[in-house]
TrEMBL record:
The keyword tRNA-binding does not apply. SUPFAM superfamilies: P-loop containing nucleoside triphosphate hydrolases (SSF52540). Belongs to the ABC transporter superfamily. The keyword Lyase applies. This is Phosphonate C-P lyase system protein PhnK. It comes from Neoaquamicrobium sediminum. Residues 12-257 form the ABC transporter domain. The gene is phnK.
Length: 263
């Protein structure tokens, strides 16, 4: 994927980030920068620390050591672990999105699809019922959910529809940074392909930055500009997606790439 990245400061700067669960390594000594408009894929086998890293970055987990700073809308770089609770909540509601692997974790299953999307708008101060409903319906259309399903609860949706609804709920407020944990995991192949197309279009249209955790190299190829390969909690390779996939340097990445012939 290509796009224009022309800002002079990173959106996110991560240095020496480690998270231990007791004696067990979650992730260790991870450093990178994420630039505005950039999509970073984090790949690696099960247990390599991808979710741990993502949760630390999204302040859903507090790391054992290391620093993460985020460029706020006023351009100030702030240590995300030193934000007040109110500031952190505000970021989560406005600037950031988090797409969970399991849509049920990111949706309210017993309120309507329209309300799931509208709720995020209300959280950023939108008060007009008609315009909230209009925007919500518009977003359902963008993720290919028919307008006549707006009053249905997500528990009446299929897995793929739930995932699309979760994406609409996250993107409706035009976040600057979206965290995604296996956004196409658990879906069948044809649904995955459509969802990936959709995500790719939305990311490009909105110019947002994203960190996408996946164990699927084809997802990384399609969505990301850069990728990091993790193994045993550490980043063992990091580079432009096409370079890493076409000319992997680390033996482990070579193994990973050669075992997936279709990428
Ligand atoms: N809450 C926890 N308590 C203890 N250990 C944990 C916890 N969560 C994760 N771990 C350990 O941290 C390591 C990294 O796990 P993590 O969930 O980050 O991996 P992952 O790359 O997301 O794997 P998967 O692809 O299976 O989702 C694993 O060894 C795991 O057992
Ligand atoms: Mg995981």
């Amino acid at each position: 994927m290509t796009s224009e990245i022309n800002d002079d400061e990173p959106l996110l700067r991560v240095s020496g980030l480690s998270k231990f669960y007791g004696a067990r390594v979650g992730c260790e000594d991870v450093s990178f920068e994420l630039w505005p408009g950039e999509v970073l894929a984090v790949v690696g086998e099960s247990g390599s620390g991808k979710t741990t890293l993502l949760n630390c970055l999204a302040t859903r987990l507090i790391p054992s050591s290391g620093n993460v700073s985020y460029r706020m809308r006023d351009a100030e770089m702030r240590d995300i672990y030193r934000l007040s609770e109110a500031e952190r909540r505000f970021l989560m509601r406005t600037d950031w999105g988090f797409v969970h692997q399991n849509p049920a974790d990111g949706l309210r299953m017993t309120v309507s699809a329209g309300a799931n999307v509208g709720e995020r708008l209300m959280a950023v101060g939108e008060r007009n019922y008609g315009s909230i409903r209009g925007t919500a319906t518009d977003w359902l259309g963008r993720v290919e959910i028919a307008a006549d399903r707006v009053d249905d609860e997500p528990r009446a949706f299929s897995g793929g529809m739930r995932q699309r609804l979760q994406i609409a709920r996250n993107l409706v407020t035009h976040p600057r940074l979206v965290f995604m944990d296996e956004p196409t995991g658990g879906l069948d192949v044809s649904v995955q392909a459509r969802l990936l197309d959709l995500l790719r279009g939305l990311v490009a249209d909105l110019g947002l930055s994203a960190i996408v955790v996946t164990h699927d190299l084809a997802v990384a190829r399609l969505l990301s500009h850069r990728m990091m390969v993790m193994k045993d909690g550490r980043v063992i390779e990091h580079g432009l997606t096409d370079r890493v996939l076409d000319d992997p340097h680390a033996p482990y990445t070579q193994l990973l790439v050669s075992s997936i012939l279709q990428v």
